[in-house]
Amino acid sequence: MKTIKDVDIAGKRVLFRVDFNVPLDANRQVADDSRLTAVLPTLQYALERKSKLILSSHLGRPEGKVVPEMSLAPAAERLGTLLNTDVKMAPDCIGPAVKALIADMKPGDVLLLENLRFHPEEQKNDDLFARALAELGDVYINDAFAVSHRPDASVVAVTRHVPVCAAGFLLAKEIDYFDKAMSHPKRPLAAVIGGAKVSGKLGALENMLVHVDKLLIGGAMANTFLKSRGVAVGKSKVEEDLIPLAEAVMKKAREKGIAFYLPLDVVVAGRMAPDAETGIVSIQEIPSDAMALDIGPETSRLYAKALEDAATIIWNGPLGVFEMDAFSRGTLDMAKCLADSGALTIVGGGDTDAAVHKAGVAAKITYISTGGGAFLELLEGKILPGVAALQKADLRR
Hints:
Elements: E1 13-17, H1 34-38, H2 40-48, E2 52-56, H3 73-83, E3 87-89, H4 96-103, E4 110-112, H5 127-134, E5 139-142, E6 164-167, H6 169-182, E7 189-193, H7 198-211, E8 214-217, H8 221-228, H9 243-256, E9 259-261, E10 265-269, E11 278-282, E12 291-295, H10 297-306, E13 312-316, H11 329-339, E14 344-348, H12 350-358, E15 367-368, H13 373-379, H14 385-396
Parallel strand pairs: 1-2, 1-5, 2-4, 3-4, 5-6, 7-8, 7-13, 8-9, 13-14, 14-15
Antiparallel strand pairs: 10-11, 10-12
Helix pairs in contact: 7-9, 7-13, 8-9, 10-11, 11-12
């Protein structure tokens, strides 16, 4: 896969796919600009080469309709501040008005196209829509890892029509770090998998069994594994239909000699609420009228011990309902454990990212992925459609 460094962009119209799907506050200002700062190295590289930067992104879920509240204008304003340059806002992402703005661009100018998802064709990977986008640039750069698992027109179809296609620094870095963790890891390789559902992580778990030396399970999904072992988990969330699959995962782990860890104790409550009365019990003592909502301190100590010798650690998914302080300790302890591990640590998923920042240890994590769904698809061993499209573009040219 070529990167932006491998192609000539000097003075050219460069069409970027970025991920500016940022949260906005009540005043319609960008509340978190981390997705903007993530692509600054790529954009600054292009500015240094006097390219004409044409940026495309989506924001929210307008369902193919023009929704003024989902305009990318706030992102354009914030990006201008970060780049210390004027970022013009286009009235649309395709069409005569957009072409006229691009025709007037000078080297070093930056134009942000309006929300791609105002057009229903974007999420249908429509070829005519992709052609219209492709006409705007001489070079196409995908630097939107977080949407590269989606077969959208601006991610996949567009690569068939722009003469030169490559990855930006962010996308290349994401793939590089994942390759270090999964394809050529320093061992022992440990994976910490949490979150609410086994169903959402089943593919990742099965693929992990091909690569890891240790697998640590937390979050509500642990309940399904515990119940498959005959543990009475009270009112805890369980995916009953996946109990046989949970058993199969654990059996395969045993057969392959993979160390497989489940909670020893949990934080329980009768309801999922910030002011709920809580208790800490062993997994054998979960009350019939209570839910397990976090791993307990004994489990945190066990997991920390299990990770002591790990050279590479991948973490996806919180270990409890960390948004509520009463059920956040297990997740925050895991974040601190990774930060102090000395291992190559890679964290993926929006909730896990938020947990690392909440714990105040983000700076001590080797790499925090910008993509949730895309990161999970990599964990499942899949090739992202956006990456495959760039690779096919290389072969065609």
